[in-house]
Specification:
By secondary structure, this protein is mainly alpha-helical. Helices cover 66% and strands 8% of the residues. The chain has a 3-stranded antiparallel beta sheet with strand order 1-3-2.
């Protein structure tokens, strides 16, 4: 098929470049997850729990677009792997939160280092000012996209 093939739908310009960046990051994330014995959804859950400190299973399910049943399975696997622990709610014994264990903190920290190194290596030919500008553009676009659901 050629780029002018009517059966293809191809973005152009900035949207194409943004999608290419997103795909490259996703490929890297799949590799990091696999290297740490995690599925992609387990990695996403682990990062969300780490970013929040503690989070309820319902909040995690909503955030990741999964059912509560799916989150139960994901969180059980993360608990069994020693990355996550279930924490009782201080005022409501019917509720619980998910939090990283010490081993979970070590794992997430290592993955963050790997991710920063991947981006740093990819950007070695860019100046600090170019990287700062790219970061500002990504932040602004993210904020605008999230503001217009």
């Amino acid at each position: 098929m050629t780029p002018t093939d009517p059966d293809r739908h191809v973005l152009n310009g900035f949207p194409e470049k943004a999608l290419g960046f997103f795909r490259a990051v996703e490929r890297s994330r799949r590799r990091v997850a696999s290297d740490h014995g995690l599925s992609e959804i387990e990695l996403r859950a682990l990062f969300r729990i780490g970013a929040e400190g503690t989070i309820t299973p319902k909040e995690l399910a909503d955030d990741l677009g999964l059912t509560k049943g799916a989150i139960t399975g994901v969180s059980t696997r993360l608990v069994e792997a020693g990355h996550v622990r279930r924490v009782d709610h201080p005022h409501d014994r019917r509720r619980l939160h998910l939090a990283l264990t010490e081993a979970g903190h070590v794992t997430v920290g290592a993955m963050h280092v790997e991710f920063r190194e991947m981006l740093s290596t990819a950007g070695t030919e860019l100046t600090d000012a170019e990287l700062e500008s790219a970061g500002a553009v990504l932040s602004a676009l993210s904020a605008r996209i999230l503001a217009n659901p």
